[in-house]
Structures are given as structure tokens and as C-alpha cells.
Specification:
By secondary structure, this protein is an alpha/beta fold. It contains ten helices and ten strands. Helix 4 packs across helix 5.
Length: 299
Amino acid sequence: MAYEQIATAIDKGVMTLTLNRPEKMNAFTGTMMSELIDVFEKVNKDDEVRAVVVTGAGKAFCAGADLSAGAKTFDYDQRADRPDKAGAGRGGNIDWSSPKLRDGGGMVTLKIFECLKPVIGAINGAGVGIGATMQLPMDVRLASSAARFGFVFARRGIVPEACSSYFLPRLVGISRALEWTMTGRIFGADEAKAAGLVRDVYAPEDLLPAAYGLAREIAENTSAVSIALTRQMLWRMLGADHPMEAHKIDSRGVYATGQTPDAIEGVMSFLEKRAPHFPGKVSADLPAFFPWWSERGYS
């Protein structure tokens, strides 16, 4: 698939995924949504990709939804460019299971959540609306000192989207999440760091080198299969109601991975004091119990 509004490049196991509408501050559109969904589906199947760094072209990360449709922006019955959603939210007999009713930002964040590779946000500028909420399922977020954040939905007469009512309180706590979403104010990178939304703040020229350094530390020193399992174990245990749920998955994981060539390589490379060369591939070597959450009906 040739992309119009994002760009991708792979170097030494790290994919750089760039939101690429700099003339529009990388504002989010239906096209960008489809392209992001496509690239994260492909990342899961591409063993060359060990980690993904997400950033924006130009001075912004993503300035939120493209508002060029004016008053019709969020009223899909009035949008000739979104016939897939026309009529989905009207009338007394609504099929809430219909994909037409799912918000596009949420479809993107779920793909990031389901990713089997580490996802690192390099937030280079304004990240507002969906530009803020799409960051939440990324594993680590690093910010430029020029970055700005805003959960502005109440100021636009709508509500937080992109699964942010799940992710945001888990990252920064319920009080801070409510403050940010109820005021809808714009805040800077230092406040984001203090609340735990971003890990560190960098000078603009140091942001991408820091993100690549983290991505390559993972790519060069760890088992791809271990990382795929670990990422899903930690994210999905956020909703567990008892540590026994984690214990059951931990036990299955340790038993399954302990029998693999990756486990042998991990031990022997340590004992031999050399860099590891893990043979396992995410595309072919995930254990039989994966995905374990399918037992509960989640995709």
C-alpha cells in the first residue's frame, strides 16, 4: 500500500513512522486512519521490524482532527466524504455492534495496543485531540521541549475518544485525567513529564536520537518473541481483577519460552559474555497459548 499521509522507513530493525501532513500540522483524517491501521497490521508480520518510533513531520506531532469540514466535522450524516458512517448514529433502532459507529481514533489506538513490537512516541510538537490520545497506547513517550498536549474534546462539544477513557487514567491517575479532559486546556512538556504522560523531555534536536537509542537497545539485546509476549502481558494485565490472572499467564509464558532456542541463546550469551543472537521470529514462533485473551472473546 502506497501511503499518502504517513511515511515509513526501516533502519537496523527500527521503523520510523512519520505522520506526514506538515502543511496541515499532521491533522488526522480518514486517510491517515486507514494508513495507520494498515502499517500496524504489517508491522506485526514483518520480522525485520523490532521496534517502531512514531513522530510527526514539520513542527507538529498531530494537531488533532482535520476540522476543514467546519460545523459538519463530527456530524457524519452531513459528510459526503464519509458514506460509511452516514446514518449510523441516528434513529431509534441503532446497531451498536456496527463498525460504522466505531470512532477512527479508537480503531488506530486498538491497533497500537495489539502491536507485537515496542512502540515509542517521539512527540516533536503539538499533540492535541487525537494527536494526544493516539499516544496513550504507545509504550514509552518522549517529548521535545517544544511539544504541547491537549485533551480538548469538551471544548469542541464532544467527548474523549480513541479509548482514552481506558488509557489516560491508567497512565496519569484519575484526578489528573479528569482535570485535563474537563478543562480541555493546552499544557507543556514539563507538565506532561511531571504527570507521567511522557518519560523525558529533550531539546528538539536530541529527541529522535534518544528515541532511536531506546529502540535499538531493545532491538539489539532482546528476544523478539519475549518482547511480543511481555508487551501484551503487561498491557492486558492492567484490567485484571486479581494477581492470580497474571500468575497464570506468567506461568504459561515461562514454561513455553523456557523450551525454546531463544532461552538457550539468552543463557549461553550471558555465560559466554557475548552479544545475543536470538533466532525466534514473531511471525512463526509465538507459543501455542497465544493469544490467550481470545479465550475471553477479545480480538
